[in-house]
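Entry for the shared binder. Reason: the reviewer on the internal report wants the predicted structure included alongside the sequence.
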Amino acid sequence: MKEIRYLALGDSYTIGESVPENERWPNQLVELLKSSPQFERSQREVEATIIARTGWTTSELWQGIQAANPQGTYDLVSLLIGVNNQYRGYDIHEYREEFRFLLGKAIEYAGGNASHVIVLSIPDWGVTPFASGRDREQIANDIDAFNAVNLEESRNAGIHYVDVTPVSREAVNDPVLVAVDGLHPSGKMYAAWARLALPIAAEILE
């Protein structure tokens, strides 16, 4: 039985800072896939490889990918990157160039098949307790601008796009959606992201 290979690329939102490993959104996506009817029937295993670290920007993710040196073709690749570019005040045009480059690499890891790649939008950390005393409206505007870039580049490349930003903003009224560190998403939030990505991931893997 062929094993399904899944590569998840990103930063703290993919490695799941401040939550247990099983509550990371890629791990929750794998569990949802395994419990879906078509996978239960086929009894195929899903192996997830995560290359992500808290604080990574687009350029640091590429350095991390090179260090990890993933081999072979993956059936599914996800990419969520950019919040640290925004947080550090990096140039949005530089982000576009580096994000486009990473998209190209993600397609390579998917065996050249852009339709096997999923991009997730950057969530809005401005709604978290960590952002207290900061200009939340400016943070939201910046996040929207960065997401406009990654959406456009994803569409140009023929890549699936999952917009998790609206659900991330629900944390302003629901503290349970924020992890104990007051900044990162909780397992409950990641579960919502996994559910949003599930239909596309299941369709890709059929």
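Summary line for the report: The longest helix spans residues 136-157.
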